[in-house]
Amino acid sequence: MGQKIEQDLQRFRKLVRGKIKSDLSKYISRGEMIGKKGNDYVSIPVPSISPPQFRFGKKNSGGVGVGPGQPGQPLTAPEGDDGEPQAGDGPGGHILEVDLSLEELAQILGEELALPRIEPRGKKNVITEKDKYTSIRSVGPESLKHFKRTFKRALKRQISAGSYNPTEPLVIPVREDKQYRAWKEVQKPDAVACVVYMMDVSGSMTDEQKEIVRIESFWIDTWIKKHYAGVETVYIIHDAVAQEVDEHTFYHTRESGGTKISSAYELCNKVIDARYPPSLWNVYAFHFSDGDNWHDDVPKCTALLANELLPKLNLFGYGQVESPYGSGEFFEHVNELTAAHENVVTSRIPDREAILGSIKEFLGTGR
């Protein structure tokens, strides 16, 4: 019975997985998963899923087009029906919430977008212990019994004792013949990463643009965390001045001042130098803006990127979230750096429907 239940559970999860993959763009653009995120799981609302099956219909019930009327006659509503909406008495569709681990969610994203695996660059002295089978013992649990070695010892014993019959090659191990795999704990360093998110919070960035940033950041986090043992996140907001904040403040702050993007890049560079040296860390930086910037500040921004930040980063992603108030000019200045720096990716995000394509642009480099 337990095996049958497990088979049904795996079948159900396979159906759910297929449903989520087919509707991934909808889930991403609507942000239905975000806000329900726990430490390791995400609750996803999916329509009720019924496995395909044959159903027997009533005999002689007619087919398509059977009934009164002539060919080509338009369909009309029944008499007395004024077309006003009425309360129904029939059952509706049911929504099922399914818990998926972040690991499963990242795998679905990677398969749907055909994302390459990230190749870590930096190492940090975070040591994890891992069991490695390195030797053989004469005692141990039956689950770790080494069949080949046990068989050889039993065969040698029977041959030396003269009890082995080649015409009836029956080998029966006894306790002294049994050999078991033995393990020891080995320590290995794990690659870790830091992700720095920067966002323009000046008056030209609306709540809708911030929601797009929130959705995209969730999926970027999910994919990066799949490849690293530990991920730390830094949030930086800026208008004319930049400051490091917590996650809630990052998505819920709006200022009315001007915009100087270089202030965010300077702070990002200081944070990396102070806490995340690239010789030990894999550092990622993503900047989201509507492309509006003080025109005298552009040369300083490009110089900071080319000379300070890019040599330290695995990847720098600039996402331009289109706004009715922003000029959008800064995109072209960053895009010019892509020809000389392979760790720079730019992406235009005009609306929520463009989020999936933007994620693919950012993460499709495998860096």
Describe the secondary-structure layout:
Blueprint: H1 2-22, H2 24-30, E1 41-47, E2 95-101, H3 102-113, E3 127-137, H4 147-161, E4 180-189, E5 192-200, H5 207-227, E6 230-238, E7 242-245, H6 247-252, H7 261-275, E8 282-289, H8 298-309, E9 315-321, H9 330-335, E10 344-349, H10 355-363
Parallel strand pairs: 5-6, 5-8, 8-9, 9-10
Antiparallel strand pairs: 1-2, 3-4, 6-7
Please provide a written account of the structure.
The chain folds into 3 domains: 68 residues, no CATH class; 60 residues, no CATH class; 174 residues, Rossmann fold, CATH 3.40.50.410. The protein is 34% helix and 21% strand. The chain has 10 helices and 10 strands.
Features:
367 residues; Rossmann fold; 3 domains; 6-stranded mixed sheet; two-stranded antiparallel sheet; 10 helices; 10 strands
Gist of the model:
The protein has 367 residues and is α/β, with parallel strands linked by helices.
Q: Stretches where pLDDT falls below 50 for ≥5 residues?
A: none
CATH structural fold name of the largest domain: Rossmann fold
As a whole number of angstroms, the C-alpha radius of gyration is 31 Å
General form: flat
Summed up, the helix count is 10
Strand order, biggest sheet?
Answer: 7-6-5-8-9-10
Q: Span from first to last CA?
A: 46 Å
